[in-house]
Amino acid sequence: MNVLSVAVAITVGVVVLVGYFFPVPVLSGLRVTLVQWAMLLAAVAVFLGVFNLLSVHMEKIRRRQKGAIYGGVLVVSLLVTFLAGLVLGPEHALMRVLFDGVIFPVEASLMAVLAVTLLYAGARLLRHRSDWMAVAFLGTALFLLVTAAPLPGMGEIPILGDLVRPFVTQVLATAGARGILLGVALGTLTTGLRVLIGSDRPYGEK
Amino acid sequence: MAFSMEFLSGALSFLLTLLVLSYLIGDNPLFRLATYTFVGVSAGYVAAVAWHYVLWPELFLPLLSGALQARLLLLPPLVLAILLLARLLPPLEKAGRIPLAFLAGVAAAVAVGGAVTGTLLPQARAVLIPFDVRSVITTGASPLERLFEGAVALVGVVSALVYFHFGARRQKEGNVRRSRINRLVAWVGRLFIAVTFGALFAGVYAAALTALIERLMFLWTFLRSF
Fold first, then answer.
1. What is the SS3 assignment for A197?
2. pLDDT score for B1
3. Which of A1, A5, A27 is the best substitution to test chain B (most B C-beta atoms within 10 A)?
4. Who among A33, A34, A179 is closest to B156 (CB)?
5. A105, A119, A136: residue with CB nearest B16
6. Most exposed residue of A188, B86, B129, B201, measured as fewest CB within 10 angstroms of its CB?
7. CA-to-CA distance for B203 and A114, rounded, in angstroms?
């Protein structure tokens, strides 16, 4: 089984990668088919994840652990939404109510809470770590927030608003972001290649 | 009916917004109730969407009523899906590694392809654009200004990459340290990264503030509708 799963990962990965870089019709067709199969498997994996979530909270309720009541709320809301979605379909008015009445407001409210927690985190950062990096981080954030819009009674701050701000966002911040992106891409490339040569086996092999 | 559905949605939204915003006075059972409801509804919604938009139309419907060729083509993913579900049964858990290996292989190949063509090449090209004086002139920008900006950006990109390089040598005293030049360039890189995260922080903070204003406006509008 070990050899088989490593062989599957390497073969499938190499075929998809070769099909990606060499646009030969046969290889491209094979790549598209394999990616579609992976998409179907990912959808099945969603069900596996949801089942795992359910079983963890059912166990919590069965053992009457601390916070089991919240687990009960989660199980009921999950089952009601899933069954309603399965029978009525995601486009049904009831599903729209669940989306507009639960998912959207909670997401937006969590984002709103972030406005206060971020402010608190910024103040804590300066209190606990007042080195050059913390000053550069908070100084940039404060400067960009202050110059984001014309100030009441003052309008746009000369030089800072039209000269320094674009330099900070389009040159300094973009350069750092490019460095991070290139670093992440190099890391992804290395990890991906390690999986493709069988050196890393994230599917459970030793 | 339309009104009642709209009212139900608004009332749920009002209640859950209040429960989540109650976190501002500290972690409390009402906030936890809202978040657990959110996780349950989201998971159920995602599973329903996965069934209606992926599994039923792309796998089960063609298997039940498609042409013979389409059915044969969908047999391997069906077998892999069954093996994946077999992970739920401890004696068959090992068989579930094959679909996971399949997913890992495809994901690794897509990630490698995406990293090369989607990030490495375009970002490296973007760093070099300001040094192509002829194309800068065609845009009407000042070549000297663009060259200066390009040079600063090049220093930022290279130093940020050096910061992520953690290779070190053993010194004469036995300590393992980066070389002096490496440390200096990495310090400059950290500065650029701090500025980048500062800019990201400002962006996220502005978005969060907008969300807070929108939620408060919603609460006020809902209350005034009575």
1. coil
2. 46
3. A5
4. A179
5. A105
6. B129
7. 12
Q: Where are the domains of chain B?
A: 1-65, 142-226
Q: Kindly report the number of other CB atoms within 10 A of residue B100's CB atom.
A: 23
Size of interface A-B (CB pairs under 8 A): 419
User: What CA–CA distance (Å, rounded) separates B203 from A61?
Assistant: 41
HSE-CB of A185 using CA atoms within 13 angstroms: 19
Report the DSSP pairing between strands B169-170 and B176-177. Answer: antiparallel
Query: How far does A3 lie from chain B, in Å, by closest CA?
Result: 10
Domain ranges of chain A: 1-88, 129-206
Residue B176 DSSP SS3: strand
ipTM confidence score? 0.88
Across the interface, whether the CB atoms of A111 and B80 are under 8 A apart is answered no
Which residue's structure tokens are 């309603």? A84
CA–CA distance, B39 with A67 (Å, rounded to integer): 15
Q: Which residue of B has its CA nearest to A42?
A: B103
pLDDT tens, A143-161?
A: 999 888 787 777 777 888 7
pTM of the model: 0.86
3-class SS letters over A58-88: HHHHHCCCCCHHHHHHHHHHHHHHHHHHHHH
